[in-house]
Amino acid sequence: MNDITSINTVTEYNNLVGHETLHPLVSIVDFEKINPFCYFRSQIGLYAIFLKDAKCGDMTYGCNNYDYEEGALIFISPGQVYGVESKEKKKGVGHALVFHPDLIHGTNLGRNIKDYTFFSYQVNEALHLSSRERAIVNDCFDKINYELEHGLDSHSKTLIVSYIELFLNYCKRFYERQFITRSHANKDVLTRFEKVLDEYFGSELPIESGLPSVRYCADKLFLSSNYLGDLLKKETGKSAQEHIQLKLIEIAKEKIYEPGKSISEIAYELGFKHPQHFTRMFKKKVGVSPVEYKSLN
Fold first, then answer.
1. Where are the domain boundaries for CATH 2.60.120.280 in the chain?
2. CATH superfamily label, 184-296
3. Which of 75, 140, 235, 237 is the most exposed, having the fewest neighbouring CB atoms within 10 Å of its CB?
4. Rounded to an integer, what is the distance from CA 179 to the centroid of its chain?
5. Percent above pLDDT 90 for the chain
6. How confident is the model over 167-191, as pLDDT tens digits?
7. CA-based diameter of the chain, in Å?
8. CA–CA separation, 253 vs 55, rounded Å?
9. Which CATH superfamily is domain 5-177 in?
10. How many separate helices (H) and strands (E) can be counted in the chain?
11. Residues sharing a CB contact under 8 Å with residue 120, sequence separation 6 or more, in sequence order
12. Strand pairing partners for 51?
């Protein structure tokens, strides 16, 4: 049950689900038309987007549950492991878009694919859609499927890639809407993020492990690093790394006034291996060195 298979081509994915291969680099799959399944777990070498075109029920989002009936999009990038598990064999409801990285090499989408950070979000950070947004997604899928079903020619690749890019740009908009509509939940994440940093700097972890990473904070919040970064950027205009640095400077300013403590000791207590790195960051953020800051105040 724990075996992980590898899927490295579109044809291998189609064979797994029982779908005809119309193009070696891209496929649109209707889950209602494929073989029923109860379990599989695979590491995929493709980009994959799954649309749950049905009532989702309770889905996790961070530490909370939300009930969305309109459906959800889940994004997976090459190298990630995904799977499904149920007690009995059943057909899914929805669609999948899978495409090989070779499809977009040399295109505008290929050059900018890293800008679509939601490919690194976890399943519990799925994009939840309204009925109108789902209609837009299905329309994009229909356009891609039309190109696949009506024979390939010299224009096929350009059109298919442009439709995928259009779809992903819509998803950018939908994710921004999700951040806004979940403003209350996002503020809870901000509060917990501050608490994670306070607890980290209030412990021996900086001395033992160095500066806290974005990954460490995201793991503590049960989020992916990319999702935490996008959420903070949307809510505050600052990246997760900038927030960590601001917290570090805030604590450093307090430590500077502790009697008998050198700048080197403060640097080591905050997690810096080299005091000069701390001094450089402090001066960049504050405008003066730690020693100058102490004398000025």
1. 5-177
2. Homeodomain-like (1.10.10.60)
3. 237
4. 13
5. 61
6. 999 999 999 888 888 777 778 889 9
7. 78
8. 51
9. Regulatory protein AraC (2.60.120.280)
10. 12, 10
11. 77, 224, 225, 226, 227
12. 73, 95
